[in-house]
Amino acid sequence: MRIVLLGAPGSGKGTQSQWLVGRFHIPQVSTGDLLRAAVANGTALGLKAKEAMAAGRLVDDQIVLGMIRERLAEPDTGQGFILDGFPRNLAQARALDELLAQIGQPLDAVVQLKVDYAELSRRIAGRRTCSDCGRVVNLLTSAPQALAAERCPKTGQAHRLFQRPDDNEATVAERLRVYEAQTQPLVEYYRQQNLLRSIDAEGEVTEVSARLEQVLAR
Ligand code: AP5
Ligand code: MG
Asked: Which of the residues 40, 68, 175, 215 has an alpha carbon 20 to 30 A from that of 55?
């Protein structure tokens, strides 16, 4: 299955991708995660991407497309993949169509995760990530005792949680603005291709996963 998850910052693309990985045994391809790894490793690509990410702007299309081309050439994507955070504008969507046509692997579905603006801001404010295993949690929605009791699978200790540097108020406002201006038009683009499935992505994570499964079965 080849899927795109489309949604604003904080809509749950990463969270639902993780569920899909377990459910369908296909890899998550997150351009945000790939870019953050490049920044953390101080690669040439990371150095180019760093400033745009910190400001909440999109990283240059050519950089992102190069990354996607390389990632989709890896053998684990042969049975399918979940694209999380890509494509993000019309140029990227058209380039993806071209690339997938070349390798004879067209998309099966594009799922739009719909979440209200106030809920997006709330989720982003509470998001924390474990610096060892990468698990994403939310301080506002998880029970504090349950979170404290959880052991990191990498260290066997409590998670070492950090806040993403682009999750500050000013950058989040810009990311949401960029989503509206550049990414939202993809909803119409994929509707015209008859690939779009929209779901209400509010409520419990498990409820959203169930809705996701339902629209993918169509
Ligand atoms: P990216 O990493 O893709 O960030 P984003 O799109 O802003 O999305 P987020 O990761 O913030 O949110 P998410 O939808 O994954 O939500 P999550 O599951 O974590 O991109 C970052 C930057 O990289 C961009 O700004 C850009 O600079 C660059 N970039 C990336 N891709 C690019 C591209 N293609 N082209 C150019 N530049 C690119 O959930 C959020 C929180 O909510 C978590 O705490 C989670 O636990 C919680 N949560 C999830 N679901 C629920 C629920 N149902 N109920 C309650 N809480 C929930
Ligand atoms: Mg994400």
From this structure: 68
- pTM for the complete prediction? 0.96
pLDDT in tens, 31-80: 999 999 999 999 999 999 999 999 999 999 999 999 999 999 999 999 99
Supply the pLDDT for residue 64. Answer: 98
Task: Dump the DSSP string for 13-71.
Answer: HHHHHHHHHHHH---EEEHHHHHHHHHHTT-HHHHHHHHHHHHTPPPPHHHHHHHHHHH
> Where does the chain show beta strands of DSSP type E?
2-7, 28-30, 81-84, 109-114, 127-130, 136-138, 161-162, 196-200
Q: DSSP 3-state assignment of 133? A: coil
The structural domains of the chain, with segments of one domain joined by +, span 2-115+200-216
- 8 A C-beta contact, residue 112 and residue 58: no
Ligand 1 touching residue 77 (CB < 6 A): no
Q: What is the pLDDT of residue 157?
A: 94
Q: With a 6 A CB cut-off, is 127 part of the ligand 1 pocket? A: yes
Q: What is the architecture, at CATH level 2, of domain 2-115+200-216?
A: 3-Layer(aba) Sandwich (3.40)
In the annotation, is 71 catalytic? no
